[in-house]
Amino acid sequence: MSNWIAGAVPVAAYLLGSLSGSLLLGRLRGVDIRTQGSGNAGGTNALRTQGWRFALGVVAIDVGKGALAAWLARLVEPQPGPWTYAAILAAIAGHVWPVFHGFRGGKGAATLVGGLAVAWPLALVPVLATWLVSLVLTGYVGLSTILASLALAVFSALPPLDAARFAFGLVVAGLIVHTHRENLRRLRAGTESRFERVRLFHRAGRSP
Fold it and tell me: For the chain, is the Cβ count within 10 Å smaller at the N or the C terminus?
């Protein structure tokens, strides 16, 4: 495999990542969700501002481009390794800083899930489990996503240790925390929005 071919994969992955689901679908609807709600071009803000059908399309695109980026890397690296994880990171970077949309995109979680589904599906178990448990207990999507990324970092450190996976887990966790820094700020201020309908104890407490 030529180095230039392998090196082209992250570039292609970044360009794929730059195809933002919410902004592409928003153009068809004549809206830019970056001007609405939290101002984020991701699935959560799409759900809050445009409804579940629109949000479902957004998530499908954003997960799909992460999966496609990982699949492209697997064509030149059959067993997931440095190039595969670099491609997933590049796709996430494209989603967060999309070249086609003024470098203002989403937060990268859905694209990460798509990449993991192809490159490291076992990691989805702790990631999704952590996200779901946290969401049910707290109702905070941003906090749940941060905790899920930290669970990925911990999982990547478990033996047998793979250096590429470990580095990937650490970088992803740092990136997800960075993209959710406003969520953390709002949590500290007590102004972060909750999805009350999914909070198990909140619902139980209101039961007669």
Answer: C
